[in-house]
Fold Lytic transglycosylase.
Amino acid sequence: MTYSKFLTLLAAMAGSICAFTASASGHSRLLESPFSPGDSLSVPTDSLRSKTTATLADTSRQMLSPEELALMVEIVPNEPDDVIADRLSCLESDIPLVYNDFVRNFIDYFTIRNRKYTRTMLTRENVYFPLFEKYLRKHNMPDELKYLAIVESGLNPLAQSPVGAAGLWQFMKPTGREYGLHQTQYIDERLDPEKSTEAAMLFLRRLHKYYGDWELALAAYNCGQGNVNKAIRKAGGKRSFWDIFPYLPRETRGYVPSMTAVRYAMHYAGEHNIFSDSILYQPEVAYLEVTQELELERLAAELHLTPEELLALNPELKKSTIPGNKYKLRVPSSRATLLATAEDQSCILLAAAPAPLQQNTLAQAPVLLASAKTEAPAEKETPIKTTKVTYTVQRGDNLISIARRHDVTVEQLKEWNNLHNSYITANQKLQIMQQGPATTAILASSNQTKPDSRSAVEKKELIHHVQPGDTLWQISRKYDGISVEQIKKLNKLKSNNLKPGQKLILS
C-alpha cells in the first residue's frame, strides 16, 4: 500500500468515526463549526494526517460496534480542490458560488466529518422541497434558496434554537408575528411548514430588495439588517459578502459558505459515496375546517388514526385541543371519504367535541313550541314503557339524524350498540331503546274564561337551532313552505351567514 493510499484510508476512518457522533443543532443548526477559531480564510496549520493520528489514538481503546466497523470500511473520497471547484462551476445558480479554503472546510464537514447529517437531508428533501419550490416560483425567487432550510433547521419543522427561533425557517417570535405567523395558546404557526415558508419568502424578498444582493440578504436573514449595515460601514461602504466578511458576527461568517457547501453536498452526494437508506415523500392531505374546539384524541379515533399521525401532519399544534374559528386541519387524503358531505363533517365534529359541548349541541335540536292564551290542565300520563327497536341504517344516515328521529342521544346509541366512534354503514342494524307513547298535553281554550275584547288566537312558533354546516338554503328545504328570504325577514338577517347554536324563527 502506497503512502498516499494509507493516508486516504486513515482519513476515511477518522471521518467515519466523527460522522457517527456529529449532529446538527444551534441557531444555524450546525453544532460543529468546521472553521478554525481565528475565523480566517487560511487553511488550519494542523494537517489531516495529524488529526487522524490523534483521533485513532483516542479511539483505539474503545470497543467499536458493528455499525461503526461498517462505517470504517466505507470508502470516503477526499477530492482535490480543482475537482470540487469544477463541480461547483457546473451548478446553475443566481447566487454566487464562491470557492475558497473556508468553503472547502464546510464541504469537508458535510461530505467527510458529518456524512450522517447529509444522508438525513437526502431522506427528507422530497418531503419539503416540492413545497419550497412552489412558493419560490410564486415569488419569482432563485430555486437554490430551498437549501437554506437545511442550514437553518435540518428540514425539521419542530426545530427549536437556544435563542427561541423555531420551525423550518427559524423565525423568532417578533419576526414571525410581523409576517403573519400567529402564536396562541393552541398553535404556533412558525412550525406550520406552508405558512412559515410563505413568510420566509416574503422576508427574503424584502431583504434582497433592500440590498440588491442575495449573499447580503442571506447574511441579514441570519444576523439582522443592523449587523450587516454595521459591517458595511466598517468595510468602508463595500457591499459584497466577502468584503464585509471580517466584520460580521462569527456565526454569520459561516452562514453563506455553509449554504454553498450544502448545495455541493446535496448535488454530488453520490460522488462522495453518500446515499440514503430510505426516501420520504410529501403525504397527500385533505383539509377539515374546524368551527369549534375539538379534542385531538377523539378526532383521531373518529378518523381511525393515532394522535401522533394527526400531529405529524399539523406540527403547529401545541396542545391536545384543536382550536375552532375555521381552523384548517390537515388529514390524510385516504380519510377524505369520511368527510364527503357537510353532514358527515358535522357528525365527526360533534363526536370529537369535548363532552360538555356534545351535550349542549344535542340539546339544541330543532323543537316545536306551542302556546295559547289559555291552557287546560294536562291529562294524566300513562306509565312509560320501554321497548327495544331494531333500526336498519339507510344511505345518508348518521348518528345525529338517527338520534333526533328517535328522541335519544348519540352517546346512548353508541352505548346500546357498543360503538367506539360515529362511523356507521348502510344496512347496519342498530338497537334503540324506545319509550312507549306518553299522553301529550292538550291545548284548549277554557269555557270558563271570560271573553276578551280580542279573540283568543292560538299561536305556533317553530324554532330551528343552527347546527354546524347548516345554510339558509338547506334549512328552507328542510322546512317546506318557507323561502330563504322569508327566513331572513323573520329573523332580521342582513346576510346569509349563520353561527352554530343560533336560533331561527321559521313561523
